[in-house]
């Protein structure tokens, strides 16, 4: 990537959610470490893919990045400004630069508002962006930009299909011309053919408007298609990070390897079907993550050292951009499948 | 494993032999020209939109038949019609469903209840809502044994623990006392599978069994299903929208679109030489290695509204190859042995 | 129909919905559409009629006879229906029909006023408790618990005893004082549920303040269960007023309300069932109509059910 400073710079981000126990006293039973020390960078116009299984903290991270939730500690710098410390009108102004697209287009649109009212809401909240007289025209332009017929602006969300609803949500997110879109599983609720339409929309919007994406998905093939760089999360931590080619062709963390091998290829092959060895067990509870390396309980390579010391995110000299948090990283030849 | 079911098909003492039409040589499940329609107004079931329109497929013992298609294509409704659990307002308006020759649609409620669960069972997508939250899972599995057999409570509970063990839930005896919410999503799906397989049914229908699960867990569940199937030569009907999962699990694939079968073929044929433009579009829409930087081939538009189906080929309005002759509904053309496509232009598609 | 197809997959629902007949241009004429439905216009007609009766009773009372509820003559005491007096006479020899018509005013006024007061309190307190949580929620919830734990009837009797005048206003205030917790609790849980939805998060993420979120998103989407209960509440309040009056702590004669009439009928209804029957009939009709109307309005104003 270029040497320009990142437009979004996240350092050691932590979010702990206290979990209350039952009973009258409602004592704090512990804390859910949804995001536990994440550092990321995003440059102008690039797409950072964020993959991981449910409970790995990717959605919590999305809410932190868009200032829906406040981090417990760590910093988020948006154009050099500490987003996590902003309040009031300065926070509101900063929100224009980074917008969130939700997973479920059935839940993210107010069912009682027309499409026009939904897409216009950003202008109503940020009054200085555009004079009231221009709102209708701007809404029409936005709908057109995302491939919807502006004549349908008076309809209600329930009159649209899932894919069209996601387009409405994207139009709303684009209204304030943000430089960054954080997309939290934006296509996983959609059918395959619709999913492809939305993925293409994201690509063309990036080309047209130069938006940078933080693209969160559990579907590795979608991320491979759309992302420039990828970060793999496991239990609140980034365990591997690098360019798409580096991570997909040559995973260094055993978890990435297992994740990639678990993705079913759309090509029938009876021989491979029998041979595939997946990852055993479930993700441990983020209430009580394992000591040392968090992946060790499911890792075929785990050794004593893994329980004792948490491996740092480390990039070898040969691949300075490709970091993995593992004491015993995979070697180039050995992909995840050969383990176990 | 229940040791109560003798699986020799020729045996006259086979539990299915008392039902009319039983034929051990017939396919485990054969759906013929099945039609399901919704009510267009309450109180008149079956009067409105046709959502399953002449679907036929048959399964083989020990094999997996996958039914793929996007939401609303009728794949789940077909399965629900087979199980006799259609939602309110929907009704079978034609066709037949035969289990080893026994016409399930012609059976009365009590006879159907004896077959369902014991000879044909279903695994649902959402295990959390399919399980009763206030009963321990062991108890719920034991109920299956008790409902269909003369087992005592204790025997049934022992069987339940064995089932949990078979679906590879660690510490089965202890976990049997746990409630559904104490299990992870993958473990709950295992419990569902244990319930579905408890009585060694001939046919198991799995409706999107892994859709709600993570990829690594998904792989585990598919592996478990494959192993259990091989052990008991169950005939599995896998309903899925995921072409990747189907590719890795199915022997034979039925592609459904707008309530009809678009294409039907052995898995390798279907993926290797699709002969229907919809199948091809589904395959092209999947991002894969090497598709970076290029837009994905997408299918424009949306499936037709079942209340207002297009004339002729239902895929016509979205099809690049559509011509004059597509105004008439295409029959299933035989592309190759065991490979059929409902497209007038199948030669062009397959030859591409 | 797609939701029935895959009931467990909210996300997978209704791709073809777009092509469906639902895709009509904007929706004017909600009222016109509603007016075509008997389920709506029948209760609406009754409610309008009763309200008109409450507003100008004299216009209705005189249909058959003199129409003056206070023109009584003991010689008619307890007589059955007679020409000009379709419902007959009460024990005082007053025309029962005109009494029942005049009774609508106090009964319906109390019903509407109490419910309006309750609704305002419920929406304000329920929204605050549900949306902000924390200390606000704790205070409001505990206050509700206190009222829930209190024997309502005893409370109302005690409070009403301290008032020297038992007017429509005082009775309404007392009824509202003891009926707000139910609606407030429902409003609170409804707002609480709405607050966690993605579109509320989306508004927050856009930078909307709590006032806008509450007024624009949370309250409109959360109010439906409360609105439906409100219409049921009108019926309940009218009944409660009747009960209080029956116990002698509500309105008192010479005020005319259905409650007062039922109260005076209690001693005579074995001999003169009409005294109980006619006010009770109007009371039930009023309660039923408000309930049905509320039900119908809920459906009408939910865009998803259009």
From TrEMBL, chain A:
Keyword annotations: ATP-binding, Hydrolase, Nucleotide-binding, Transport
Protein name in UniProt: Oligopeptide ABC transporter (ATP-binding protein)
Highest taxon of the lineage: Bacteria
Domain ABC transporter: 8-260
Entries under SUPFAM superfamilies matching the protein: P-loop containing nucleoside triphosphate hydrolases
InterPro entries assigned: AAA+_ATPase, ABC_transp_ATP-bind, ABC_transporter-like_ATP-bd, ABC_transporter-like_CS, Oligopep_ABC_C, P-loop_NTPase
GO terms (BP aspect): peptide transport; transmembrane transport
Organism: Actinacidiphila cocklensis
Enzyme Commission no: 3.6.3.-
Gene3D superfamilies cross-referenced by the UniProt entry: P-loop containing nucleotide triphosphate hydrolases
Gene this chain is encoded by: appF
Similarity comment text for this entry: Belongs to the ABC transporter superfamily.
Keyword ATP-binding annotated: yes
First and last residue of the signal peptide: none
Any one GO MF annotation of this record: ATP hydrolysis activity
One of the Pfam families matching this protein, by short name: oligo_HPY
From TrEMBL, chain B:
Gene Ontology biological process terms, A to Z: peptide transport
SMART domains cross-referenced by the UniProt entry: AAA (SM00382)
Topology term for the membrane: Peripheral membrane protein
Keywords of this entry: ATP-binding, Cell membrane, Membrane, Nucleotide-binding, Transport
Location of the region described as Disordered in the Swiss-Prot/TrEMBL record: 1-21
Protein name in UniProt: Dipeptide ABC transporter (ATP-binding subunit)
Upper classification of the organism: Bacteria, Bacillati, Actinomycetota, Actinomycetes, Kitasatosporales
Domain ABC transporter: 29-283
Compartments it resides in: Cell membrane
Gene Ontology molecular functions: ATP binding; ATP hydrolysis activity
GO cellular component terms, A-Z: plasma membrane
Family: Belongs to the ABC transporter superfamily.
From TrEMBL, chain C:
TM spans (from-to): 40-64, 108-132, 139-159, 165-183, 226-256, 276-297
GO biological process: transmembrane transport
Region Disordered, residue ranges: 1-26
Compositional bias ranges of the Low complexity kind: 7-26
GO-annotated cellular components: plasma membrane
Keywords recorded for this protein, A-Z: Cell membrane, Membrane, Transmembrane, Transmembrane helix, Transport
SUPFAM superfamilies, per database record: MetI-like (SSF161098)
Main location per the UniProt record: membrane
Lineage top rank: taxon: Bacteria
Localisation per UniProt entry: Cell membrane
Family matches, as Pfam families: BPD_transp_1
UniProt record similarity statement: Belongs to the binding-protein-dependent transport system permease family.
Name of the protein in its database record: Oligopeptide transport system permease protein
């Amino acid at each position: 990537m270029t040497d320009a400073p990142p437009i979004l710079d996240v350092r050691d981000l932590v979010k702990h959610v206290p979990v209350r126990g039952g009973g009258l006293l409602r004592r704090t039973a512990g804390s859910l470490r949804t995001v536990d020390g994440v550092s990321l960078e995003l440059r102008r116009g690039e797409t950072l893919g964020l993959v991981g299984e449910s409970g790995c903290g990717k959605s919590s991270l999305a809410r932190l990045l868009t200032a829906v939730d406040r981090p417990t500690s760590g910093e988020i710098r948006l154009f050099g400004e500490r987003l996590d410390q902003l309040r009031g009108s300065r926070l509101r102004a900063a929100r224009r630069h980074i917008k969130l697209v939700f997973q479920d287009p059935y839940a993210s649109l107010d069912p009682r508002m027309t499409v026009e009212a939904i897409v216009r809401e950003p202008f109503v909240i940020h009054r200085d962006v555009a004079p009231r007289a221009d709102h209708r025209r701007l809404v029409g332009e936005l709908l057109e930009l995302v491939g919807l017929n502006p004549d349908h602006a008076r309809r209600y969300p329930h009159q649209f299909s899932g894919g069209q609803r996601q387009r409405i949500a994207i139009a709303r997110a684009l209204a304030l011309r943000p430089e960054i879109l954080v997309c939290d599983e934006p296509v996983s609720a959609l059918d395959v053919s619709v999913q492809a339409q939305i993925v293409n929309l994201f690509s063309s919007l990036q080309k047209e408007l130069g938006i940078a994406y933080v693209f969160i998905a559990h579907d590795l093939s979608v991320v491979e298609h759309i992302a420039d760089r990828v970060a793999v999360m496991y239990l609140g931590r980034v365990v591997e990070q690098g360019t798409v080619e580096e991570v997909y062709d040559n995973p260094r963390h055993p978890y990435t390897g297992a994740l990639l091998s678990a993705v079913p290829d759309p090509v029938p092959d009876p021989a491979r079907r029998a041979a595939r060895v997946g990852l055993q067990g479930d993700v441990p509870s983020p209430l009580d993550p394992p000591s040392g390396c968090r992946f060790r309980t499911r890792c075929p390579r785990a050794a004593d050292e893994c329980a004792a010391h948490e491996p740092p995110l480390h990039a070898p000299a040969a691949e300075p951009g490709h970091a993995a948090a593992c004491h015993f990283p995979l070697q180039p030849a050995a992909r995840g499948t050969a383990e176990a | 494993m229940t040791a109560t079911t003798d699986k020799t098909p020729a045996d006259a003492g086979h539990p299915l032999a008392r039902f009319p039409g039983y034929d051990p040589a017939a396919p485990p499940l054969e759906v013929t020209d099945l039609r399901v329609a919704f009510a267009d107004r309450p109180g008149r079931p079956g009067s409105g939109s046709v959502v399953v329109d002449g679907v036929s497929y048959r399964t083989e013992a020990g094999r997996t038949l996958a039914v793929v298609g996007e939401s609303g294509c009728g794949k789940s409704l077909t399965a629900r019609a087979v199980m006799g659990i259609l939602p309110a307002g929907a009704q079978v308006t034609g066709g037949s469903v035969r289990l080893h020759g026994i016409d399930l649609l012609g059976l009365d409620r009590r006879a159907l209840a004896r077959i369902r669960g014991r000879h044909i069972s279903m695994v649902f997508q959402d295990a959390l809502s399919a399980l009763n939250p206030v009963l321990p899972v062991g108890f719920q599995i034991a109920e299956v044994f008790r409902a269909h057999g003369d087992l005592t409570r204790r025997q049934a509970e022992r069987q339940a623990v064995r089932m949990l063990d078979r679906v590879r839930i660690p510490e089965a005896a202890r976990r049997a006392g746990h409630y559904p919410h104490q299990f992870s999503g993958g473990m709950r799906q295992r419990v569902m599978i244990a319930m579905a397989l408890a009585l060694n049914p001939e046919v198991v229908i799995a409706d999107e069994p892994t859709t709600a699960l993570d990829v690594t867990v998904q792989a585990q569940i598919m592996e478990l299903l494959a192993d259990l199937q091989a052990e008991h030569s169950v005939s599995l009907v896998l309903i899925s929208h995921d072409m990747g999962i189907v590719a890795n699990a199915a022997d034979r694939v039925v592609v459904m679109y707008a309530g009809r079968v678009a294409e039907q073929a052995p898995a390798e044929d279907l993926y290797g030489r699709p002969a229907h433009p919809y199948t091809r579009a589904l395959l092209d829409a999947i991002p894969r290695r090497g598709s970076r930087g290029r837009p994905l081939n997408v299918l424009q538009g949306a499936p037709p509204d079942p209340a207002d189906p297009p004339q002729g080929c239902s895929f016509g309005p979205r099809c690049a190859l559509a011509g004059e002759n597509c105004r008439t509904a295409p029959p299933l053309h035989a592309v190759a042995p065991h490979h059929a496509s409902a497209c007038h232009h199948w030669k062009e598609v397959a030859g591409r | 129909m797609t939701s029935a197809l895959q009931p467990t997959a909210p996300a997978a629902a209704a791709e073809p919905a777009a092509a469906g007949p639902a895709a009509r241009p904007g929706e004017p004429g909600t009222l016109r559409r509603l007016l075509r439905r008997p389920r709506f216009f029948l209760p609406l007609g009754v409610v309008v009629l009763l309200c008109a009766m409450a507003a100008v009773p004299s216009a209705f009372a005189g249909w058959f006879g003199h129409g003056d509820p206070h023109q009584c003559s003991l010689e008619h005491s307890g007589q059955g229906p007679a020409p000009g007096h379709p419902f007959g006479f009460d024990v005082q020899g007053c025309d029962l029909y005109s009494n029942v018509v005049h009774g609508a005013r106090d009964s319906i006024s109390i019903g509407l006023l109490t419910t309006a007061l309750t609704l305002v309190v419920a929406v304000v307190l329920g929204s605050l408790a549900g949306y902000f949580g924390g200390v606000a929620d704790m205070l409001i919830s505990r206050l509700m618990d206190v009222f829930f734990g209190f024997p309502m009837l005893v409370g109302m009797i005690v409070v009403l005893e301290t008032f020297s005048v038992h007017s429509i206003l005082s009775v309404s205030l007392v009824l509202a004082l003891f009926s707000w917790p139910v609606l407030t609790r429902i409003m609170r849980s409804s707002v609480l549920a709405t607050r966690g939805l993605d579109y509320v998060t989306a508004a927050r993420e856009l930078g909307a303040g709590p006032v806008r979120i509450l007024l624009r998103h949370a309250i409109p989407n959360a109010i439906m269960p409360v609105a439906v209960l409100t219409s049921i509440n009108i019926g309940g309040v009218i009944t409660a007023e009747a009960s209080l009056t029956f116990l002698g702590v509500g309105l008192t004669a010479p005020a005319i309300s259905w409650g007062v009439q039922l109260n005076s009928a209690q001693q005579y209804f074995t001999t003169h069932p009409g005294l109980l029957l006619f006010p009770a009939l109007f009371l039930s009709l009023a309660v039923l109509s408000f309930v049905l109307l509320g039900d119908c309005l809920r459906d009408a104003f939910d865009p998803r059910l259009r």
